[in-house]
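Record 1 of the preview.
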Amino acid sequence: VGYILASLASGPLARRVGDVKQLCAGVWCLALAYLLLGPSPLLPALRPSFPLAATAMLLIGAGGAIAYTPTNNLSLRACEARGIAVNEASAALTAIVNMSFTVGCLIGPSLGGSLVQTAGFGGASTALGLMLAA
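->
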């Protein structure tokens, strides 16, 4: 739900605030969401609860949409700056994005499972949130 709603607004938002600012805002939203999801031991006042998890999941969806939307424009502009025509770059960029999602689907569960087994769910979500914030 968060991804769907944010996707509708993220195109016009990128035109207003700029692609880079929107990408950064989306990543920060994701970082906050992962800190809330655990909840992070860095937030000792928070206790695991369904409303907190639901809020975190909505923020993960929204942050993903907000961060993902401007990446196409940024990638195309980077190609144009290097003298690569948009029609030549589009297919390659689509392949790179699809490959990235596929690799994430392949290794994400194993790495995530290992991290949860080592650090617990709160520690794993904190690690992801801090990596995104960095």
